[in-house]
Automatic annotation (TrEMBL):
It comes from the Bacteria. SMART domains: HDc. Catalyzes the reversible adenylation of nicotinate mononucleotide (NaMN) to nicotinic acid adenine dinucleotide (NaAD). Pathway: Cofactor biosynthesis; NAD(+) biosynthesis; deamido-NAD(+) from nicotinate D-ribonucleotide: step 1/1. One of its GO terms (molecular function) is bis(5'-nucleosyl)-tetraphosphatase (symmetrical) activity. PANTHER family: NICOTINATE-NUCLEOTIDE ADENYLYLTRANSFERASE-RELATED (PTHR39321), PHOSPHOPANTETHEINE ADENYLYLTRANSFERASE (PTHR39321:SF3). Keywords: ATP-binding, Hydrolase, Iron, Metal-binding, NAD, Nucleotide-binding, Nucleotidyltransferase, Pyridine nucleotide biosynthesis, Transferase. Residues 214-341 form the HD/PDEase domain. It holds the Pfam family HD. Its EC number is 2.7.7.18. NCBIfam families: bis(5'-nucleosyl)-tetraphosphatase (symmetrical) YqeK, cyt_tran_rel, nicotinate (nicotinamide) nucleotide adenylyltransferase, PRK00071.1-3. This is Probable nicotinate-nucleotide adenylyltransferase.
Length: 394
């Protein structure tokens, strides 16, 4: 028998996989195609979906195709399985069959880098589903390897189906629809089991990330902000968990390159906050985006507290004000006037916000640095609010 083997993580299996198998079957007159999911090491990203679920989805996807089947050989073996070991084993078990290893053009290009590629070629034929957009030179090293081993890849020309499991996972994580790229039963299963949805990082996960991605001195500052914010929350109330989370994450991207921040901001369809080109405040905007889209934190209060912690804004929520002030007065700060601001923060939060805003604006102006428009309107707003409050009290 001629048997095709299609390997991959199938995380999840999609219509592109089925198309590859069908094309190979038709072109090479295969009797059967085996889908062989790889084992994914537990520490690998996106392993939130278990091997059993990946296999289950494959069974669902192939249920209407009597000539396709699933092999759990690699998944059950656990640990990294090398293709050369798998094909050797297949040959040992079925010495009379001819196996065709089905790969996409992108895998073919890198085939020469695989572990023991000669070992693979000893036991199987290779079928390549061609993809447009790959220049001939890209595969020259693999072509050479095949020549040396007196082999020729079977090339299957077909209409490109450009579907990737990674894109599907990203779409689902962002709450977008990806179901038209999946076999119907797989789509229903993913929906029912809520697979690939974004699950919020825990406080511990965020803490680990922050610790690993900011300079040690910055982490000391962050701990100071958490402490100051919780003290303010004792005085003024608010959701302590949200406040601690926002304080922990407010500077999470402060030590990243500006290019990384800009890329992140653009990737999620925003324009960088315009303060007349100071990169200083981008970490706040990018931090909020990262928290929402990568860490899956959907608490608006936390996101806004991070987003506006440098500039402030009019009509800040209690959490926003607390983080804004805590960032100014945490115990590591020692600029002139910080003691007064600490005292004021304990007495009247809005007045402390106004004092901090006007202090910063004056400071930036004295250095001839740009001031964000949102900070100026915040200052106007809090001036007005406090004036009206005083009038009211008189
Ligand atoms: Fe900051
Ligand atoms: Fe800070």
């Amino acid at each position: 028998m001629n048997i095709g083997i299609l390997g991959g993580t199938f995380n999840p299996v999609h219509l592109g996989h089925l198309y590859m198998a069908e094309e190979a079957m038709k072109n090479l007159k295969l009797d059967h195609v085996i889908f062989m999911p790889n084992y994914i090491p537990p520490h690998k990203e996106n392993s939130s979906v278990s091997a059993a679920e990946r296999v289950k989805m494959l069974h669902l996807a192939l249920s209407d195709h009597p000539d396709f089947s699933v092999s759990t050989f690699e998944v059950e073996k656990t640990g990294i399985s090398y293709t050369y070991e798998t094909v050797e084993e297949l040959h040992r078990r079925h010495p009379l069959d001819t196996f065709f290893f089905i790969i996409g053009e992108d895998s073919y290009v890198n085939f020469w880098k695989w572990k023991n590629p000669e070992g693979i070629l000893k036991y199987v034929e290779v079928a390549v589903i061609e993809r447009t957009g790959f220049p001939k030179e890209a595969s020259s090293k693999t072509d050479e390897l095949f020549r040396q081993n007196h082999k020729k890849a079977f090339r299957i020309l077909s209409e490109t189906v450009d579907i990737s499991s990674t894109d599907i996972r990203i779409r689902l994580k962002e709450g977008k629809d990806a179901y038209e790229l999946l076999p119907r039963k797989v789509a229903e299963y993913i929906k029912e089991k809520k697979l690939y949805l974004c699950s919020p990082w825990t406080f511990q996960q965020l803490q680990t990330y922050v610790k690993e991605h900011v300079k040690p001195m910055r982490y000391v500052h962050i701990e100071g902000v958490v402490e100051a914010a919780l003290l303010l929350s004792e005085l003024y109330g608010g959701n302590r968990d949200a406040i601690a989370l926002a304080a922990l994450c407010h500077d999470m991207l402060k030590d990243h390159e500006v290019s990384f921040l800009l890329e992140l901001i653009h990737r999620y369809g925003e324009m960088p906050v315009d303060d007349g080109n100071s990169p200083q405040i981008l970490h706040a905007q990018a931090g909020a985006i990262y928290l929402e889209h990568v860490c899956c934190i959907r608490n608006e209060e936390v996101l806004n507290a991070v987003r506006y912690h440098t500039t402030g804004r009019a009509q800040m929520s209690l959490t926003e004000k607390i983080i804004f002030i805590a960032d100014y007065i945490e115990k590591g700060r020692n600029f002139p006037g910080v003691e007064n601001l600490r005292k004021l923060a304990g007495e009247n939060l809005d007045q402390a916000v106004l004092a901090a805003l006007s202090g910063t604006i004056k400071h930036l102006e004295s250095l001839n640095k740009p001031v964000a428009a949102v900070s100026r309107s915040a200052m106007d707003y809090y001036e007005r609010v406090l004036q009206e409050r005083t009038k009211h009290e008189q």
